[in-house]
Amino acid sequence: MNEMFRVAVIEGDGIGPEVLAAARVILEKVLSKYGLSIEVKHVEAGDVAVSKYGEALPESSWNIIKTCDAILKGPVGESAGEVVVKIRRGLDLYANIRPAKTFPGVKALKPGIDLVIVRENTEDVYIRAEYMLTDGVSVALRLVTKRASERIARKAFELARSRRRKVTVVHKANVLTVTDGLFKRVVYDVGKSFPGVEVDEMYIDAAVMDLVRRPEKFDVIVTTNLYGDILSDLAAYVTGSIGLAASANIGDEKAMFEPIHGAAFDIAGKGVANPTAMMLATAWMLKWLGERGGGRRYVEAGEAIEKAIENVLSEGKVLTPDLGGTAKTIEFTEAVALRL
Ligand code: ATP
């Protein structure tokens, strides 16, 4: 059993420091209650680092991040891409996992949604190989490899095994017969090693429609990078507020946990940001550390945070303005802390 984990914390920009402060209150509470040992290392990154050092993720920050087991990242502003891509690539965090779930008490487009999007995080058009061939003619390359498709498919099936045992592979193999054709084939092949999990497939255009029309039918969606990017924002929207959704970037050794939402500069400094997504990211990190050798107490601490948040949301008395309430970030945080 690992007795001391190191966690790098990036405050981020805009509402980042506010939602992270809220998450820290909750983290401190469970650290003592469940006897967890986590060493928190503060790391400068994002717009704040650009103005101070001229780069979004300075060498000094990267050197700390490299030594940590996990990263808890607040939303970053303009330089978000730079920070996230460098960490994802540097630590090979190949799986972007984005759950979308409705909470009782929170108005959603549809009730009863509980799905997870497993998005390949390293390939597709995100290799950024775009060229201007001649004046007025441009081309972009798309990378899909067997190796990357296999490892993301395996993550999806492992996840489905602990859920409702269904994986939907989303693609457009009728048009992109070679690249999406390979991805789809690999997912079915990997699926043979998971006999208890059902596999089906959907074209991306049909999947976006069904995500709005009947999202409750999905369990785990596995897809390539670009489709996953688009699908996961839509999924966050149909479940209610963007302030409720967390995501993880997971590799074989390390992982980074963050809210889906951005820095939301329009409400920064007003004390009204919804810290739920940041708290859920924290809970997820604890559960992951538990599975990485921390043991049952870490998992229980993560579950307790999730339960406390669900209780506060379903009671509907202390809600932030994005959910139709009048509570400040601090009031919501206190309400969650009280239920821990
Ligand atoms: P980015 O461009 O990085 O995605 P953004 O701030 O433009 O960042 P989002 O983070 O997607 O976009 O947020 C869109 C809007 O949703 C924000 O402007 C804000 O009003 C609202 N919002 C986002 N996160 C929260 C939150 N945690 N609590 C309350 N409102 C939020």
Could you describe the 3D structure shown?
It is a single chain. With 340 residues, the protein is of the alpha/beta class. It has two domains: 1-99 and 242-340, Isopropylmalate Dehydrogenase (3-Layer(aba) Sandwich), CATH 3.40.718; 109-238, Isopropylmalate Dehydrogenase, CATH 3.40.718.10. The protein contains eleven helices and twelve strands. The chain has helices at 16-34, 47-53, 59-66, 80-91, 146-161, 179-191, 204-213, 225-238, 276-294, 296-315, 329-338; strands at residues 5-10, 38-43, 70-73, 95-101, 114-120, 130-134, 137-140, 166-171, 198-203, 220-223, 246-250, 255-259. The protein has a ten-stranded mixed β-sheet with strand order 2-1-3-12-11-4-5-10-8-9, with helices on both faces. Strand 8 (166-171), helix 6 (179-191) and strand 9 form a beta-alpha-beta unit. Helix 1 (16-34) runs parallel beside helix 11 (329-338). It starts with a strand and ends with a helix. The structure holds adenosine-5'-triphosphate (ATP). Adenosine-5'-triphosphate is lined by residues 15, 19, 80, 242-243, 261-264, 266-267, 273-274, 277, 322. Residues 15, 19, 80, 242-243, 261-264, 266-267, 273-274, 277, 322 line the site of adenosine-5'-triphosphate.
